[in-house]
């Protein structure tokens, strides 16, 4: 029965809500191995054994929001706040470029300092300095005009996880100032403007059920994003969710494989959170269908301050060390890092 559902998913790239729930509840070590093998085959068909790299620049940990799960939420007084200057950000790009990165991901909290008047010229400067590179922004919810100006300035891609589709669940993870609907509207807007869009969610976030995950998968089916970022929820000690349990490696891998079968050409990172809950988490992620890794290019002086969750890996390592470390890890399982820009092959067709 489970295998029939997997067959349907592989053939039609969609499932009904109840079918997703059935699949999710069928998770077992044997069934997972079966799915991972299929996911590898699909990934192999489109991307071979290439793993794309993106240089992550965590440029500000100021945030106006107060998400209950996140260590840089505004009500965490113990967070030590920093903001990189444009010069520092460009210097990260310079180091990254020399290390072979052709995509820079500018990620930050929703920092009121980074208005369009400041962010637009920054994007333009990076684009002018590195015309052969893709710029990915991950700076949260902004209005349509802002997204448009940033796109016009040269941003190619935008990461904004929908976090959870279901409204009631969303409201258990966020204060009332944030809503699932607005989050999703932002994603549709980004798509309309022409960004390559990445969405995603945490696995095992507090109060999450398989029904919620089924809704997430249905939303992703409709949105048909170019990228999907998922990783386990990991508690941060200075948040309201400090005492909640973390998401599991097994369930995250299971979902990675399902996503690969759902969207064969999607760019799917083996995330830092996955590498944090298990020493071989990212390698196992690749073996379950992931094909992107995002080593950190932020200066080591601020690394530990971009703490969304506890025990985050790589906080003491220079960019070059992470690059080498990941290369070694990827090679150890028979894959290789590619420095191509890595635009998504997921445009409109599945063939
Ligand atoms: N554990 C795991 N992931 C987290 N994120 C935020 N806080 C946590 C946490 N405690 C994720 C969110 C966000 C992304 C940048 O990091 O999904 O979109
Ligand atoms: Fe950063 Fe391994 S990837 S040290």
Automatic annotation (TrEMBL):
Signal peptide: none annotated. Keywords: 4Fe-4S, Iron, Iron-sulfur, Metal-binding, S-adenosyl-L-methionine. InterPro entries: Aldolase_TIM, BATS_dom, Elp3/MiaA/NifB-like_rSAM, FeFe-hyd_HydE_rSAM, HydE/PylB-like, rSAM, rSAM_sf. GO terms for biological process: sulfur compound biosynthetic process; water-soluble vitamin biosynthetic process. The keyword S-adenosyl-L-methionine applies. It comes from the Bacteria. SUPFAM superfamilies: Radical SAM enzymes. Binds 1 [4Fe-4S] cluster. The cluster is coordinated with 3 cysteines and an exchangeable S-adenosyl-L-methionine. (3R)-3-methyl-D-ornithine binds at residue 138. Pfam families: Radical_SAM. Residues 49-287 form the Radical SAM core domain. The keyword Iron applies. One of its GO terms (molecular function) is 4 iron, 4 sulfur cluster binding. Its cofactor is [4Fe-4S] cluster; [2Fe-2S] cluster. [4Fe-4S] cluster binds at residues 63, 67, 70. S-adenosyl-L-methionine binds at residues 163, 183. This is [FeFe] hydrogenase H-cluster radical SAM maturase HydE. It comes from Suipraeoptans intestinalis. The gene is hydE.
């Amino acid at each position: 029965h489970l295998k029939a559902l997997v067959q349907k998913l592989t053939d039609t790239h969609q499932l009904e809500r109840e079918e997703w729930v059935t699949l999710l509840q069928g998770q077992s070590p044997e069934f997972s191995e079966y799915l991972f093998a299929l996911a590898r085959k699909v990934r192999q068909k489109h991307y071979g054994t290439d793993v794309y790299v993106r240089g992550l620049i965590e440029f500000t940990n100021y945030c106006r929001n107060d998400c209950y799960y996140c260590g840089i939420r505004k009500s965490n007084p113990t967070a030590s706040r920093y903001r990189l200057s444009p010069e520092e950000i460009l210097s990260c790009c310079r180091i990254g470029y020399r290390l072979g990165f052709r995509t820079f991901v500018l990620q930050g909290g929703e920092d009121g300092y980074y208005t369009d008047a400041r962010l637009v010229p920054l994007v333009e400067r990076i684009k002018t300095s590195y015309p052969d590179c893709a710029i990915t922004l991950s700076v949260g919810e902004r209005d349509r005009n802002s997204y448009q100006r940033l796109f016009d300035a040269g941003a190619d891609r935008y990461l904004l996880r929908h976090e959870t589709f279901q409204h009631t669940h969303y409201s258990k993870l966020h204060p009332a100032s944030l809503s699932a609907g607005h989050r999703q509207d932002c994603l549709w807007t980004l798509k309309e403007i022409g960004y390559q869009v990445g969405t995603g969610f945490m696995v095992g976030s507090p109060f999450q059920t398989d029904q919620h995950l089924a809704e997430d998968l249905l939303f992703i089916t409709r949105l048909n994003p170019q990228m999907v970022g998922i990783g386990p929820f990991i508690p941060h000690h200075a948040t309201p969710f400090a005492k909640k349990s973390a998401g599991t490696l097994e369930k995250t891998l299971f979902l990675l494989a399902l996503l690969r079968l759902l969207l064969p050409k999607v760019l799917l990172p083996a995330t830092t959170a996955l590498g944090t809950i298990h020493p071989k988490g990212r390698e196992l992620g690749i073996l379950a269908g992931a094909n992107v890794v995002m080593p950190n290019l932020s200066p080591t002086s601020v690394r530990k301050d971009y703490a969304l969750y506890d025990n985050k890996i790589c906080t003491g390592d220079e960019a070059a060390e992470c690059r080498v470390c990941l290369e070694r890890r990827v090679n150890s399982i028979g894959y290789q890092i590619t420095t191509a820009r890595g635009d998504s092959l997921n445009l409109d067709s599945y063939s």
